[in-house]
Design a protein that fits this description.
Number of helices: 26
CATH superfamily of the largest domain: P-loop containing nucleotide triphosphate hydrolases
Helix content: 40-55%
Mean pLDDT: 83
Number of domains: 3
CATH class of the largest domain: Alpha Beta
Largest sheet: 8 strands, mixed
CATH architecture of the largest domain: 3-Layer(aba) Sandwich
Structural class: alpha/beta
Strand content: 5-15%
Radius of gyration: 34 Å
CATH topology of the largest domain: Rossmann fold
Strand order of the largest sheet: 7-14-8-13-12-9-11-10
Distance between the termini: 60 Å
Oligomer: single chain
Shape: globular
């Protein structure tokens, strides 16, 4: 950049770089003609510089400037913002102040020179200072930076080396935690108190002795429980063996149950209802198809209706149900409508649905939100939904939500839900990740699980295993579908969307009526496919694991695993789609050489469920074990072991 006398003859604004050397060196001079050769706008990016801007117009050069340039330093990370995209910001400053601005990039800060009259120089500097100040304020507020600590952060490295550690300000974490707690109290201070206990124990339930209660639990799938409260443990309530025992004081609930035609509660419902109705946080661990949805819905209706506010002034929404998939969300909403209670309104919020319609429903006012974490987080961040009045929270199929990577969205959502809420969590498994989630978001919960915490398949399903080759898998499935009876209904599970489409096309070309369900289909098509399968219009559904959770079709007679799932947990969830609501079912699973890693785990599942184990499967497990031992012996010493 060059200038003659006091007038710059380079560009209107230039970001150059003074190269470091052992001695002082003048800025590199670039004549106007050289810069003009760089293009119609004069932009160029070169080594050691950020921008070299458009050339200064000849008339501006001729005009000259009597005043010496006004010089000041600018932090390098603000240079790009001051220049703006394509120089838009700095051009605007120059035109409004009638000045010429040059920026020379140096270390640790850039040098800004403003040419023009003294008054205009001052004005241009004030504009830049105000702009930089706003940038700093925005940065500090977004990052949560305490300005008291900024001087030590912004120093040059050479200065920092001379500062003793004791001179630097120390962060008082205790004070920060204390201020955080104060802020939390202020945030929730104006909310009304929550009423949680609505349980009135029946005579029959209270008359049950401890021996009788323990005997009942053992006979009903070996129900076990634990109190996760610190200190003195509470006694688990006796199970409610009939609907009257649980809801004798709530005739509207009893009326809905009678309409549905239920005879008696499922084991998980019998033990969960007296806990939830007392306002205690609950973790319910049970396999799919055991009635976990009504475990939280029925008490939730009562909880909402009896909160200590006038009905016309009810704070909405009051109940939130988070589910991993849209199918499960729609199913839960269907249950809400089926057991409609005292005019409570619900809305289903999920990705793939019409966002504007969902927002409109929320604006009308709802009592219950059933949502997938992604879409609800979107509406929450854009202030379309207020979760401040949620007093009853459900994390349904928590293990699946964590498997799908929804934990960050769940964390963001729960920041806006009052901490003294009642929380119910359901899960089909009890891995460490779910345990950790429960520790974070439930307060002194009780855990009830049906069977064992180890993975066990539903005992009402007969499991058949076929060890075959990839080439023969199709013929096995085709033979099965051709031999289906008129009353059979089957879900065929595949591993990928492309496989689902391929099988669907082949079966349709073979005049076999089917529907398919996977994530790439439009939401309305998925809903239509599920409706056709539920009503029996089609009896074959090709599905990915998207449908392995929450797909509640009671009359599914068979599950066919065309592809083995990615892990043994998904296998259990898949076959749990049949043998539901007191019925029995059959699963058929084809395994190939590609699946031999899961053979041993599958044998354990079959043994626990008292199922027959094919010799081919045992042989496959032995071959894989031998293969692993051989690889272990052949591995060079010092080479790290791979973990699967």
């Amino acid at each position: 950049m060059s200038h003659h006398g006091g007038t710059p003859k380079a560009s209107t604004w230039v970001v150059a770089s003074r190269r470091s050397s052992t001695g002082p060196r003048a800025p590199e001079r670039r004549p106007v003609e050289e810069l003009n050769r760089r293009g119609p706008e004069g932009y160029s990016v070169g080594r050691g510089s950020r921008w070299r801007g458009p050339c200064r117009p000849p008339e501006a050069v001729a005009a000259g400037h009597e005043e010496p340039p006004l010089c000041f330093a600018l932090k390098n990370h603000f240079v790009g913002a001051v220049i703006g995209r394509g120089g838009s910001k700095i051009k605007n400053i120059q035109s409004t102040t009638n000045t010429t601005i040059q920026i020379i990039q140096e270390q640790p800060e850039s040098l800004v020179k403003i040419f023009g009259s003294k008054a205009m120089q001052t004005k241009a500097k004030a504009v830049i200072d105000n702009f930089v100040k706003k940038l700093e304020e925005n940065y500090n507020s977004e990052c949560g930076v305490d300005t008291a600590f900024q001087p030590s952060v912004g120093k040059d490295r050479s200065t920092d080396n001379n500062v003793v550690a004791g001179d630097r300000p120390l962060i008082d974490w205790d004070q920060i935690r204390e201020e955080g707690l104060k802020w939390q109290k202020t945030k929730w201070a104006d909310l009304p108190p929550i009423k949680k206990n609505f349980y009135k124990e029946s005579t029959a339930t209270s008359a049950m002795s401890k021996v009788q209660a323990d005997s009942w639990r053992k006979e009903n799938f070996n129900i076990t429980w634990d109190d996760l409260k610190d200190g003195e443990k509470r006694t688990i309530p006796n199970p409610t063996c009939t609907f009257d025992d649980a809801f004798q004081c709530y005739p509207e609930v009893m009326e809905n149950i009678k309409k549905a035609g239920f005879q008696k509660p499922t084991p998980i419902q019998s033990q969960a209802w007296p806990i939830v109705l007392q306002g205690i946080d609950l973790i319910g661990v049970a396999q799919t198809g055991t009635g976990k949805t009504l475990c939280y819905l029925m008490p939730g209706f009562i909880h909402l209706d009896l909160q200590p506010t006038l009905k016309g002034q009810r704070n909405r929404p009051g109940m939130l149900v988070l589910t991993p998939t849209r199918e499960l969300a729609l199913q839960v909403e269907g249950e809400c409508c089926k057991y409609s209670y005292k005019g409570l309104r619900s809305v289903c919020v999920y990705g793939g649905g019409n966002r504007d319609e969902q927002i409109e429903e929320l604006r009308k006012g709802v009592d219950i939100i059933i949502a997938t974490p992604g879409r609800l987080n979107d509406l929450q961040m854009n202030n379309f939904v207020n979760l401040k009045n949620i007093t009853y929270l459900v994390l349904d199929e928590a293990d699946k939500m964590l498997d799908m990577g929804f934990e960050p969205q769940i964390m963001k959502i729960l920041l806006d839900v009052r901490p003294d809420r009642q929380t119910v969590m359901t899960s089909a498994t009890w891995p460490h990740s779910v345990h950790r989630l429960a520790q974070s978001y439930l307060k002194e919960p009780m855990i009830v699980y049906v069977g064992t915490l180890d993975l066990v398949a539903v005992s009402s399903v007969k499991q058949n295993i076929i060890v075959t080759t990839e080439e023969e898998k199709w013929s096995h499935m085709h033979t099965f579908l051709q031999n289906m009876s008129s009353t059979d209904k089957v879900i065929v599970f595949v591993s990928r969307k492309a496989v689902a489409d391929h099988l669907s096309s082949d079966l349709i070309l073979g005049n076999i009526s089917i529907e398919s369900l996977h994530g790439d289909r439009e939401q309305r098509d998925r809903e239509k496919a599920l409706e056709n399968f539920k009503t029996g219009k089609v009896r074959i559904l090709i599905a990915t694991d998207l449908a392995s959770r929450g797909l509640d079709v009671h009359d599914v007679t068979h599950v066919y695993n065309f592809d083995f799932p990615r892990n043994i947990e998904e296998y259990v969830h898949r076959i749990g789609r049949t043998g539901r609501a007191g019925r029995t079912g059959v699963s058929i699973t084809t395994l190939t050489r590609n699946d031999w890693r899961v053979a041993s785990e599958l044998i354990n599942i079959l043994e626990r469920a008292n199922q027959s184990i094919p010799e081919e499967l045992v042989s496959m497990a032995e071959r894989f074990k031998a293969h692993q031992q051989k690889r272990e012996m052949e591995r060079p010493q010092g080479r790290p072991k791979k973990f699967h």
